C-alpha cells in the first residue's frame, strides 16, 4: 500500500494496515541490533517502512521482508556515461538513450 503522505506518516500507514488485520492499535515497536524495527509481542508479524519525498511505503507480512521507495531526481544528460559500463551504455544507447 502506498499513500502520498508526509515522511513522518509511515507509522500511520503501518497502523492502518494493522487495523485491516484486526489490530486496534499499533503494538510496541523496538529495534533489532542492526536497527530494523519489530514488534516484540508479535515476533511472527514482520513489517518494513520506507519514505521518500512525501511518499510512504509499508510492507506487512508473516515472513521477513523489506520495502524501499525512492523518488529519483532528474539526472544530467552525462550521467549514463558516468554510471554505466561500456556494455550497459551501448545497450542504453541502442534503445534511444533517454531516461
Q: Which terms summarize this structure?
A:
about 20% strand; alpha+beta; about 100 residues; about 25% helix; single chain; 5 strands; 3-stranded antiparallel β-sheet
In short, what is this structure?
25% of the residues lie in helices and 21% in strands.
Summarize the topology.
Layout: E1 2-4, H1 10-20, E2 30-31, E3 37-38, E4 46-52, E5 55-61, H2 79-83, H3 86-94
Antiparallel strand pairs: 1-5, 2-3, 4-5
Describe the structure.
It is a single chain. The protein has 99 residues and is α+β, with helices and mostly antiparallel strands. It contains three helices and five strands; from the N terminus they run βαββββαα. The strands form two sheets. It has a three-stranded antiparallel β-sheet with strand order 1-5-4, with helices on one face. β4 and β5 form a beta hairpin. 8% of the residues are buried. The mean pLDDT is 86.
Distance N to C terminus: 26 Å
Structural class: alpha+beta
Number of strands: 5
Kindly report the spatial arrangement of strands forming the biggest sheet: 1-5-4
DSSP helix fraction: 25-40%
Number of helices: 3
- Low-confidence parts lasting 5 or more residues at pLDDT below 50? none
| Proportion in β-strands | 15-25%
Shape: elongated
Mean pLDDT: 86
How do the SSEs run, as a string of H and E? EHEEEEHH
- What is the CA-based Rg, rounded? 19 Å
Main sheet makeup = 3 strands, antiparallel
